Structure formats: C-alpha cells, structure tokens
Amino acid sequence: MPTIRTIVTLAIVFAALAGLAPAHAAPAPPGPPQAVAQGHPGCAGITADTPQTPECDAVMAAQPYPDVERIPFDLGVIEGQDFVYFDADTVPLYNAPGGKQVGTLTAGRSSYVNVIQTSGNWAEIRPGRWASLDKANYATPSTFTGVIINRMEMPFAWAIYDHCTSLTPGGPRNCRQSGSFDRYDLMNIYATVRVGAWDWHLVGPNQWTVQTNLSIVHPTPPTVFSWRWVGVSTYEQNLVAYEGERPVMATLVSTGDMDEEKWRTDPGVWKVELFWEAGPMEGAAGSDDFYALDRVPYHMYFNWREALHGVYWHDNFGYYWSHGCVNLTVSDAKWLWDNWVIMDTRVYVYDEKPG
User: Fold this and answer.
1) What is the pLDDT of residues 69-101, one digit of tens each?
2) What are the Cα distances from residue 164, in Å, to 5, 153, 159, 181, 207?
3) pTM higher than the cut 0.70
C-alpha cells in the first residue's frame, strides 16, 4: 500500500499493541434503505404458477453466467510461508531439533504458528525454539476468490452448499433432470417467488433453488455513501465494495455469529482506522475459545476489535466463523488492501434481509 498510509497508521498500531483504543471518527449516517431487485426485468412474468416464460428463457440464453471476473489467487505477504496447528493443548519447545526442552507453547486447533524453518520432522516456530511435527497439521489457504463486477442487471449468488435443484419452485430436488451446483459455484438469479416461508430462486432453465442454499449479491446497495465504501451483510455472509451506488467487487466472508453476543460483528457504520500488513491476533485467554494466530495478513480495523482481514486457516466462507472480525480469503483481503480501503473508508455492517 502507499507509504503514506503506513506512516499515518504507525502510531495507531503502537497504541493497539499497548492496549489503547484509538478514538473513533464520527461516521456519517447511511442513506435510506434501498429497494432490492429480486430478478431480471425480462423475467417479471415468472410466478409460482408460471415458472417459465419465453421472455425469461431468452434472458437465460443470452446471460447464462454473471458478468464478472474472478480475482486472482494471491497470498501476497504470506506467499511461500507455512503455518501449523498442533493436536495438543501444549507443545514442548526445544533449543534444537531433538535438543533440550526450554519451554512450552500453549497450542490447540485455534492456534497457528508460523514455521521459520524445518529440519527433518522438526520446525523452528520461534527464534531458537523448535517443536516436533508429530502432532502438527499444516494450514491450506482457501483458493476461493471473489469477483470484479463488470455489469449487473440482476442479483447473482454463490452456492454455499453442494445441492441439487428443482424443476419448479418448492418442488422436490431432482438431480437428474434439473441439475446441481457445487459449493462456491456462481449463478445468476433470474426470478424469485415465495413458497411458504421461503424465497425460491430461478438460477437456470428449469433450475430452482431455495434461498438457504445461497449467498446473494443484489445490484442495488443496502444504502448509499459517496465515493468508495464497503458493505458487509451478516445475513448473506458476503461483502461488496461499492463506488457510490455501483457494486464493483463482491465476495463471501465469515463474520461473528450475530446470536453470540461476545463474538458478534457489530452492525453499524464504521470507519477504517488502523492498518497492519501482517501481525499476530489472539484473544479469549484462559477459556476454551482461546486463539492465537501468527502473521494474520492484511488487517483493516474498523471497530477497534473488529477488522477486515485475510485468513489462511479455514475455508468456511459463507458461514459464521469468526470471533467478530470479517474473515476473507487472503486473495480477497489483499485486493481490498491494494485497491479499495484507505484511512476512513466506511464499512457498513448490516444484518437485515434485503427486500
């Protein structure tokens, strides 16, 4: 990122390390809620009783896939580095491979350490401190990436589950005749109808799927700010980067559980106030929720304890998973860091379902 950003935020980073919360700039209120399109205008004639029209068939034939480009996979600042967690609560540390024990590491499945170097079945995980890799597991960063939006005439969505679609809204799953989607597959939403308590979405010819299978991005923003800003939907578990009203980039995220007060990602309008290219994160000391993570990439803090940042330790995007932060793939976090987020960029976190 630009050197000026690093210089400006350096003092804030030191304050964070010292446990001093920076003062919040007063964010501007959001504009009024926006009406949300539920499909393409050419499919307006679709209903539960009329699940197919020639006009909508023509739209699906002309636009079979969202007009987007995938963000390149790029691990950026952690490229070429390895991270491990241990299947143990504590790990003995030695002064050399097979040497003398000189300490212990508090470990567990929510604690990842950066491997400095290896020698046989040993890893140096702190300067001069080595651990056996017998109970170690290597992290595999997600290869999922979000998309740059070229044009958006209707909503699109990611499948968050592997699932078969139905021939009609509310109908039984029919893998053979209707088809199926894999997790992270991307699709247009051409029309939406309500069946009982649920929205059913037309996502292809004779392909209907229920809303719980999807994370949906709408062409109309949930509110409007001037210039560049970021919207985070905890309902849909996705993030969209906007320029005014125009959606520019979108991706799946993992936020904190909104039903778990201590881990929720707070709804509201915030401003990004701290940047850290790579550094540790830890919390919940002394509890079963303890976590400690080395070299977390691309911190962009917007609400003191909450940040947009990359994760290398899970692939659960589209679901609640974090301790309050907005988890992104490393590639997506790097794109925001490089292209979009600067000091005072607004982050609008909202939980309501659009529409």
Assistant:
1) 999 999 999 999 999 999 998 999 999 999 999
2) 47, 25, 11, 6, 9
3) yes
